[in-house]
Design brief:
There is one protein chain. This protein is mainly alpha-helical and 109 residues long. It has helices at residues 4-14, 19-26, 30-38, 46-56, 60-66, 72-79, 84-91, 97-108. The model has no long low-confidence stretch (mean pLDDT 92).
């Protein structure tokens, strides 16, 4: 599986956008883009990931997963009391692999 930086780099090159151009579009220094792509820095903030996703036409949720980050909208639904997401995440660690697979199958239908 590719890293966050590798996905950004590949998508940027596919769109024929330089690091300098991407940096300018999201209002950061081009060295920041270089460091993200090489993994020298941790993935950026949620807002920067969103901007990059939009420019490079990538799925922001996939980028969040690669960045090992949880978008605010997901956090909010998880921490609200008695929501399905809240109950699911509290119980998830106790599910068997078979139960997880069944849930995944239901969700993907």
């Amino acid at each position: 599986m590719k890293t966050f930086g590798e996905v950004i780099k590949d998508a940027r090159k596919e769109k024929r956008i330089t690091q300098r151009d991407l940096a300018k579009m999201i209002s950061v220094d081009f060295t920041y883009i270089s460091k993200i792509e090489t993994g020298a820095l941790e993935p950026p903030s949620e807002s920067v990931i969103g901007k990059i996703a939009k420019i490079l036409e990538l799925d922001p949720n996939e980028l969040f997963i690669l960045a090992k980050k949880v978008p605010t909208e997901f956090k909010n639904s998880i921490i609200e009391e008695d929501t399905t997401a809240n109950v699911f995440f509290r119980k998830y660690q106790y599910l068997t692999e078979e139960q997880k697979e069944r849930i995944k199958h239901i969700i993907e239908e």
